[in-house]
Amino acid sequence: MLPHTRAMVAAAAHAFMFGKKIAGVHDHGSGQDLQIAAEARGDRLQGFDGDRSASFTGTSSEIYDAGDNAFISLAIDGLKAQGYDRGSSSHYSLSVTDQIVRLYDHAAGSWFAFSIQVA
């Protein structure tokens, strides 16, 4: 997965799990604060990646990244989720504790951590 895709998926999953607006994401791997906003209302998601000037939308089962023209599946089970990024042909899994999302990218063979800032 691309780094921005991991951050977007982390924000989307958190928005669905907790029903709160996401105002930003901190990528612990790069040390960067990312301009990612997301909001889930029921089964619908709307988001925007300000660093790429790209929107992302979808449902609790699939996200569409307009910037990359790619679909990412999402299957949420409590505070865990998994899915498949069709853009990079990569599976991922994630878990959430408090405001931290830990995402395992199977293609990279690594864990990535994101702090979620709620509005």
Written account of the structure:
The protein is mainly β and 119 residues long. It has one domain (3-118): Beta Barrel (Lipocalin). Helices cover 13% and strands 56% of the residues. The chain has one helix and twelve strands. Strands 2-1-12-11-10-9-8 form a seven-stranded antiparallel sheet, covered by helices on one side. It has a five-stranded antiparallel sheet with strand order 3-4-5-6-7, with helices on one face. The longest helix is centred in the first third of the chain and has 16 residues, at 3-18. It is globular, with a radius of gyration of 12 Å. The protein starts with a helix and ends with a strand. The model has no long low-confidence stretch (mean pLDDT 97).
What value does the average pLDDT take? 97
**What is the total domain count?**
1
Number of helices: 1
CATH topology: Lipocalin
- Derived from helix and strand composition plus strand pairing, the structural class reads mainly beta
Shape: globular
- The proportion of residues forming helix, as a percent range, comes to 10-25%
Tell me the total number of β-strands: 12
Rg, Å, rounded? 12 Å
